[in-house]
Design goal:
13 strands, 19 helices, 43% helix, 15% strand, Spore Coat Polysaccharide Biosynthesis Protein SpsA, Chain A, globular
């Protein structure tokens, strides 16, 4: 089973990555097909992942896009049926490979994902701090990608992780809900990992309040019952709102010279803040550093949480369901990727249009597969030979490749074939060859036949007009972009 599984580890280069890799290298049992390490640092020297005992390793870089984008790049570049995600700060048990193999083997077709089991070790010689108790909650959380394997097809069907979640927070719950909404199930396996409490500074509880904005996005996307479905507790936001309102009222009443009312509001704020601080201090170690930190942050958290919640309300007033990137972009050749020399059989005349290389590489960098679908009726007309066409395609691959699929129709307009655009044959064949759903495919071309072929195959079409494009074709196209680069930019922005 592991031969059909890729392990994806997103990382920002923390020292804990070495601990994880050492554990994976030392573990006995079968190995997965590949280990993909996604370097999500904005810059820095290449990561070195070189340990005997690891499965075949590949390192890819996002340039810094956050955990959702990093995981998306990892699974998009994988070619196995299962993708097992591990965070870079966990330690798999020695039998993790064996248990993963058992967890995934013979799962029913309606099971889209399998979650591992998490343990969070807490200090044995003292009470845990507020941060340690928060981390311990991972042991009972649902569908966290610290250790979660998904069918690649399930990820592709929903567009993967929603990259509008910028932090390692809620993006996993959002994905799980969207996968379940397709009618699939998620189950818990028997494999285990240890999630140590990561060292941090005393102000971490203030930074995590930014997640309140993500909660607003979850509500917009999944409705008011999302917490129940995602097994996510409400927390103290209602109390934070009340304490913040009391504090604001106290300041406002004082400014309005209403001292008694201001005093009452101030007492309400103080009581709420004290209750919050006591609830955080009581179960903790109660040493001076912890008590001081809890007292200070308990005063700051309610207004900060409220601010981030209001920021989310404003930012996420209108949100569309996440579509993600397409799995495959198919390009017309002549007039789209290269300058159009009618019935060209000379590889020396294969000359990319401005920005073609950058556009195709931008798709590859995000894990989107690319291919070519080209009508070549010059073969049927006796103007060029198939060998000449293949030589020109080889030159195209040298200049802009590699392309994962190249489809050529050598027939003429009157041959009645099913492959010549606007017929859908080449688009469907390309999708079948790569195992891609046409609904997750985009076709980019310069004439109406290109977008018509896309629509006939169930794919999306984008027209990039040139001087030979007719006005009627532009008017009828579902999407139009001024240049090839602009078309690809729209695709990468989710507008397809």
């Amino acid at each position: 089973m592991l031969a059909e599984c890729t392990v994806v580890v997103p990382t920002i280069g923390r020292p804990s990555l070495d601990v994880l890799l050492d554990a994976l290298a030392a573990a006995p049992g079968p190995r997965p097909a590949e280990l993909v390490v996604v370097d999500d640092r904005p810059q820095g020297p290449p990561l070195t992942v070189d340990r005997p005992g690891l499965p075949p390793v590949r390192v890819v870089r996002t340039g810094g896009g956050g955990p959702a984008r990093a995981r998306n790049l990892g699974w998009r570049t994988a070619r196995t049926g299962w993708i097992a995600f591990l965070d870079d700060d966990v330690v798999p048990d020695p039998d993790w490979y064996e248990r993963l193999d058992e967890d995934l083997r013979d799962l029913p077709a309606d099971v889209a994902g399998s979650q591992g089991r998490v343990r969070v070790p807490l200090p044995a010689d003292r009470r845990p701090t507020d941060w340690e108790r928060g981390t311990a909650g991972l042991a009972t959380s649902s569908w966290i990608t610290a250790d979660l394997a998904y069918r690649r097809a399930a990820l592709a069907a929903v567009g993967g992780f929603d990259e509008r979640f910028p932090r390692a927070f809620r993006e996993d719950s959002d994905l799980a809900l969207r996968v379940v909404d397709t009618g699939s199930r998620l189950v818990r396996g028997q494999r285990r990992i240890t999630h140590p409490v990561r060292p941090t500074d005393r102000w971490v509880s203030l930074r995590v309040q930014a997640g309140n904005a993500d909660d607003v996005l979850m509500r917009r996307l999944h409705g008011p019952d999302w917490r129940e479905r995602a097994d996510a507790a409400l927390g103290r936001r209602p109390q934070h709102l009340a304490v913040t309102a009391a504090g604001v009222a106290a300041l406002g009443l004082a400014a309005a010279r209403r001292p008694r009312a201001a005093l009452a509001a101030a007492l309400a704020w103080a009581a709420g803040t004290a209750e919050f601080a006591r609830a955080r201090i009581a179960p903790g170690p109660r040493d001076r550093a912890e008590v001081t930190t809890m007292a200070l942050t308990s005063a700051a958290i309610p207004p900060l949480a409220t601010w981030h919640w209001l920021r989310g309300v404003v930012r996420h007033r209108r949100v569309a369901p996440w579509r993600g990137l397409p799995d495959l972009v198919l390009f017309d050749r002549d007039g789209t990727l290269v300058r159009d020399y009618p019935y060209n059989g000379d590889p020396e005349l294969v000359r990319p249009v401005p920005g073609a290389r950058e556009a195709v590489d931008a798709l590859r960098a995000r894990g989107v597969r690319v291919g070519v679908v080209s009508n070549q009726s010059g073969v049927a007309r006796g103007i060029v030979t198939r060998d000449q066409v293949d030589a020109c395609m080889a030159r195209l691959d040298e200049l802009l490749g590699p392309f994962e699929t190249v489809q050529v129709c050598p027939h003429g307009p009157d041959d009645g074939c099913s492959c010549r655009k606007p017929a859908p044959g080449m688009v469907k064949t390309a999708c079948a060859e790569l195992g891609v759903d046409p609904a997750r495919t985009v076709v980019i071309g310069d004439i109406g036949a290109d977008v018509e072929a896309a629509a006939a195959a169930g794919a999306s079409g984008v027209l990039v007009p040139t001087p030979v494009t007719r006005k009627q074709e532009v008017a009828a196209a579902p999407r139009v972009a001024a240049t090839l680069s602009a078309a690809v930019d729209d695709v990468l922005a989710g507008r397809w």
